[in-house]
Structures are given as structure tokens and as C-alpha cells.
Amino acid sequence: MAPGAEKRWIILLLLQIVSFAIVAIVGQTTQNINILFVNEVDNNLANVAVEVALNYVKKNPQLGLSVEMMYVEGNRTDSKDLLQALCSKYGQALSDNRPPHLLLDTTLTGVSSETVKSFSLALGIPTVSASFGQEGDLRQWRDLTPTKRGYLLQVMPPADMIPQVIRSIIIYMNITNAAILYDQTFVMDHKYKALLQNIPTRHVITSIADDRDRASQIEKLRNLDINNFFVLGSIASIKQVLESAKNEYFERNFAWHAITQEQKDLTCNVENATIMFLRPMSDSSSKDRLGSIRTTYNLKQEPQITGFFYFDLTLRALIAIKNILQSGSWPSNMKYITCEDYDGTNTPNHTIDLKTAFVEVTEPTTFGPFEIPKGAKVPFNGNTFMKFDMDINAVSIRSGASVNTRNLGTWEASLGAPINVANEAEIKNLTADVVYRVYTVVQAPFIMRDPTAPKGFKGYCIDLLNKIAEIVEFDYEIREVEDGKFGNMNENGEWNGIVRKLIDKQADIGLGSMSVMAERETVIDFTVPYYDLVGISIMMQLPSTPSSLFKFLTVLETNVWLCILAAYFFTSFLMWVFDRYSPYSYQNNREKYKNDDEKREFNIKECLWFCMTSLTPQGGGEAPKNLSGRLVAATWWLFGFIIIASYTANLAAFLTVSRLDTPVESLDDLSKQYKILYAPLNGSSAMTYFQRMADIEAKFYEIWKEMSLNDSLTAVERSKLAVWDYPVSDKYTKMWQAMLEAGLPNSLEEAVQRIRNSTSASGFAFLGDATDIRYQVLTNCDLQMVGEEFSRKPYAIAVQQGSPLKDQFNNAILMLLNRRELEKLKEQWWKNDDVQNKCEKPDDQSDGISIQNIGGVFIVIFVGIGMACITLLFEFWYYKYRNNSKVIDIVDSSEQQQQQQQHQQATVVKSVRPAGKLIKQDSLKDATKGQHYQTLRTRTLMPNLSKFQPRF
Q: What is the pLDDT of residue 561?
């Protein structure tokens, strides 16, 4: 044998001897422990972890433990079978003289956990439990005596601590609403009240639905005005939830938080999303031990944190029992009773201090150390847990693949520790923006579509909401309600329109010209009014007075004008006859009147002229000389005075009456006539008003009829009810019936079109909110607002019943009122609106006659001047080419010579006769030298105009 080999053999022999010695020494101190292990169905990880712990004890003899395990498994919902199994197993152990030193309880929650707690408490069995719940959640262990608190211990599992990170996130991000979804790997039964206690966050905690209902579950949560989602579960469960959500639920107004116990990476088939992903991290000082346990003892099941928790808890509990036994602290006269012996009052009083032994165990942990409260004031149960850190990351997913993971910070597991933020700016970007869902009805100028506007709408309410958003600090998305209604209730008590959206939590805000009504306030809330009281008014077509340039001729009928014309010609003819045949007329007594300054011969032309000018302020001029002619003239003057006076009065009255023709001026006028049809908008508050007024009248009639036909009345009482007229008005009943017959328009545009299509024979009047009608009149020159407003109600913003937005919006609206911002908005949209039409001012009683009605007079002037010009041209033409006759007189030569001597050149003598004729005399011309001269004398007009021009 080689020298080196001999040395190695000697060393190995010595090592074997030493090992045998150690085993012998340890074997002398090995402690036998009996364990009653209780688990629930489907908690397989606890079974695996406990088995690994037992295997670890066997392979590590230095621990000095020899464990005999008794198993009991029960259903979470079946306490009877579990209790029978516990009593049977415990009774058998006592009969075999192997009483359990420890009851190891890994039941999670429910009746199985309660059954184990009741069993251990009643029989006084030392217990270490890993059930879910904080102090007070374990109902059977709430009022333990100090002695019992020493041996009835509970340590919270990691799955019970991880949900506490939600509380820390909500506090840090100031989240006001949350939906917490969890799968079977988490137990949240006891978290409904305690998780977010004393935090003003509206939240829902529910288990994840199955594949068929998962999408609708998320949709319902969204309809509850929730946009912050926390998903607690395995990676597979988180993936299913994210893939069930709509793509729009990953926009900036939503926030998703995925929280798991597993160590895997997050993947899901989502188009575009950024998820806050949280998963546990092991203690850095325990990584070597964790790797050794995983590889050597094959503890690789997920979630690892839970498996190692059960492993460490089992190992620590076994060592604590061993230390009590070896220290002699275990009672020698330990009393045990069976389930049959227990009568409710004979629980053994044990003084076992398992709590102290559990705390003093120095065995290193695998995943993280146990956090055990110090001091007697903080109870052990509900405050003891395994410490670990949660890694907080932002995972960006694009087209189903994780493209980026950024670390945001960590969270140290505890019942109230805040999150440790490493990237504050990044984590703020993961918060859900406050984006409220606004539903509206398009109705100018409150709400109008505008593709160029940031939200696709503009109007008074949009400006108002933007100003409120500046104060309250929120964003919103606005949609038009599908049925275009603000909200009305049918006979079955069902609502439609915006009210329905608010009731179903599909809308946060109802915006528009929405009236505050009592029945609406029973299901939704209204803010303080943002617009003053608005009543119902009447809109009709603006009556247009027909204009005519010759309207002054229409004052008298055609037959009257013809009679006046006939009287004119007849009077002119009579005047000519009387002047011609009267012996006292001018033309028959020229010598008598030759010295008068005014000489007028009344021929046909002069008679026509006299009668025409007599009707004017200028007068007819010189009257006839004969008495009979003057009587005719006086008669004509009287006739003309009466005709002109009548015409003037009728012209003024005719123009005034045409402007005063307004068929309807109030609601009563509308109800009393049948020519004009009328109706409100279908589904509007105006329709509700008339319908209810009609119903009230009908109810009053039924009450009156029942009262008047009551057979129990005495004769005296019946006589007091005997009236000829029905004492209650039926105005609204008739109006509602007329509205139904006329047909209710479904939109304001339809109502305006019906008004424009109406005629004087079949008119149409629309009854609606005064603000809407006022805006239509402002933007349409052919419409008018008639009558006074009635049934006045304020406009307000609608919110969900009990919504905190009510108080926030109230404060904002009151601030705007104090700053007079609302008045400025009214000025902008009702007086300075860009769409306001520049309408011509309609005629009223104070206005004068328009040019459209009197312009024919100017046409008459222009026609007269035109006719005068044509007559002048005719006179020139007639003078030059038609009237060229000559008159020649023969005189003696002596006279001619005398004239030649006196006048060597032509002389022109102008004399104006009373009739206005011009006479010219031509010069004398020599025919031939030495011959007789002839005198050319013209009696009327000069034939040769080229030599002698007339003077005017």
C-alpha cells in the first residue's frame, strides 16, 4: 500500500469513529414528538411542505427530533365530518398512550378553521395555526385567557399579508375607487371590512368569475364607476382577467395592479397596456438555504413563498415543542380529555408556554424571518407573520408581449407599512386619471356637436363643465345618450335617457338643459342650479306682411277705382257740354270777358285737366264762368274731397291692421282656437307637464263625480253640489288631446321644420323650454317667441345618487356665480353668439310705411316723367315733319316797298297767347329785282328751323 493511501485510510477511519460517537451522543438526546396535523382539502402545498419538513428532520439528526405524525383532512364547508375525524384520531392517540404534543393547523378559513379552533380550545391542546385572519377574525380564539394565549398560537400566512399592499398603494396614490379581484390562492372573506377600513375609498372585493362571466363581471364593475383594478391571484388567473377586459379599459383613465405570490414573469395577450406588477422576494440572507432546500428536498411547488412558510412554521413548531420537553417545562401530569368527556366546562388548564418557546427558536428560516410582536400589549395572534418584500414593477405590454419592465420600488410586508418608492414620477403615471363619463343630449346652445372641439362638442354647458373642471381638477369624456332623452319614467316605473345611465352607473354626470323635477330627484341627485328658472314658451312662425310697391292701390277695390275713373270722365264730359252750350260761358261771351285777366276756354282737353288737377292740393285753376259749370265743378270738388279723405284714412288703417295681425299671444289663446296645431317635444319636460296637468284634471273630475253622485248624501248636501257648470277647468285635457292628435315631434329640428312648413290655413306652434326657443329665434329670422313663460323650473347638472361629485360641483358652481362667470357665459351664447342672424327689424306700430309698400308712388313719378319726355319728342317730330303748311297774303307793291324801307332785314315778333302758342314772323324776301315783293307770313310755326331757332 502506498504511503499516501495509508494516510487517507487512517483519516477516513477516524472520521467514521467520530461520526459514530456523535450519533451515539445525539441519539441519547433525541426527542420523540407526536403531532396531530390538520389540513383542508385542496391545500396540497401544505401537505408537501410538512412532508419536506419531516424529511428534513430525519436527515438532520443534530436537531434531535423524532416525529410521529397523525393526519386529518377536512372540507372547508363540512364541520361535522371534520370534527368526527378529529375526535376519532385524538381518541385513538389517547387510547394508544400517544397523546399529541402539538396540533399543527394549516386550514385556511371557513368552518374547517373554526372547527379546529373550537376543538383545540375545548380540549386544551397546544396548537400552532396557519389560518387566515387578524386579531378578532378568529372568533373562537377572541377572548383567550393569558394561559391559553401561551399555547394557542396563530401565524398569518403570506397570502394573508400580501393583500395589505393594496391598502398601502391606495393610501399613497390617493385612490378613491377600487375593484379587488382574487382567485382561490387568496382568502379575502375576512378582508371585506378590515382591508380598507377608515380609508375613503369606494371599493368592491369579489372573487374572479369563470371564463363565461369574466368579461361581464369587469363590465359591471366599470359601470359601478370603478377604474382602479387590483387582481390577486396566480399568473394564470391574472392573465385571464387582463385578457377578458376591453382594450378601452387600459386607457389613461384606468389603472391595473397585478399582485401574485409566484415568482414568474407577467405575460398576457393585451394590445397595449402598462400594468403595476407586484411579486414577493426572498430574504437575501436566506437565499443559500432556500436553494439548498429546493434542490435537496425538492420543494419547488408554486407559490414558493407559501411552501417555504409552511416548511419554516412546521420546523419551528417542532423545535419549540422539543425545547419545552427537553427543558422539563412540559407538565408531568398533563391532563387529556376526549371529545366524549368534554361537557363545555371541563377544559384542562394547561400552563404550557409554547409562545415563549416559539419565539426563542434560533433555527434559520428559508424565505424570510418571522415577525413576532414584542411586548405584552400587542397580541401574538393576528400580528405574527413571515417577513418578506414585494417587488413593485411597471410592466409594459405591447401586442401581447412584455416589452419593458421598470422597477418602481418595494413594499415590506406588514400591517401598515407604506410602499418604498424608487421612481415617483413613473409610479404617478400609473395612476388612473380622474376621467368622468358624461352623457348629454344635443340641444343648442347648451350642447352642440363640433368635430374641431377638443371633446367633439361645444356650447354653454361645455364651457361651464370646463370651468368646473378647473376648480375640481378632473377630466371627462362625453357621449350622446342613445335615445336622445333626458329621462322620463314610464308606467312601470322604468326610466330612460340620461337618468337611466345614471341609475345603472354607466354615467357619472348628466349634462345639458336638464330640468330639476321631483320624480327625477328620487333616483338621482342634482347640483345647485346653474341656470335661472326656465319656463315653457311658445314658438311660431313670424308672420310676414306681404309687401307690394303698389299697395296704395289695393286700399280700394278694383270696382271702386273703375267707378272713380268713370266719374272722372263723365264729369269732364259734362263740364265741356255745359261750357259749350251755356250762353254765359266764356267761349260764348268773348267780348264780355275780353278785359278779364283770366280767360279759359273749357274744351275737352281743359275739362280733363281741370278735373284731374282738382283732386290735388294744387287745385284745378280758373273755374268756368257760367253758373251751371261752376255747380259741376263744385260737385266734383266735394266728390274729390270725400274720396281723398276716405282713401287717406283707409290707407293708414290698412297698413296698421296688417302689422297687428297676431293670431296667438298666450297659452289661453292657443287652447281656445282649433286652426293652429301645437305640440311639445316627445319625451321632454314640457310633454310631461301637459300630460300630468291633464291627468290631474281627470283625477279631479273623478273625485267630483264620485262626490256628486254619492247616494249617502242628504238632500241638503246634494243641493250644495248641484251646479250647471263643471267647477274644474278641462283646459289641459283638451290641449293634451289636441297635442296627441297633432303628433309630438321627436326632435327640435323636426319641430322647427313643421313650423316652417305650416301655412296660415294650417299653422303649427311648438311648446318647449324658453331657452331653446329664445336661441332658435336668435338664429332664425322666420321664427318668433309668443307669450309669457309658464311652469318655470331650474336647470342643474345631474349626478348619481349619493355621488361625492354633488358637493364638489355645488362649491364650484357657487364660486362661478360669485365671480359672475355664469352671466358672462349667458352673454356669450345668447347675445354675442357667432351664429346669430342679422335679421331685419320687423314692422311695428311705431314704424313708418316701408319703401316696399309705398315705392309705387315713385314709380308713378318716373312713369309720368318718362311719358313727358316721350311727349316732348313727339312735339319736335310733329313740328318739323307734319305741320309745314304755309299761308301767303298778297299786298300792293307800295306797301311792300314801305315795308322794305323800314325793315331791311327780317324781324321776328314774338307774342305769347293765353294758350301758350309761339308766333314768329319771317322777314320779307325779294323774289326778283324790280319785281313785286311777296310777304311770307306764318301764323303758327316757322317751317325752316335751320334759320330761325325757337326761344324757350
A: 82
